[in-house]
Amino acid sequence: MPRATPMHDPQILRAIAHPVRNRILAELDARGSLRAADVARELDLPANQASFHLRQLAKYGLIEEDPDAARDKRDRVWRTVNPEGFSVEMSEVEQQPGGKAASRVFRRTKRDWGHLVVDAVLSDEPRKGRWSSLTDTAVLLTRAEAQQLSEEIEEVLSRWGNRAVPDDQEERMTYLYWAAILPYPAVDEG
Question: Are the C-beta atoms of 5 and 82 separated by less than 8 Å?
Answer without folding.
Answer: yes
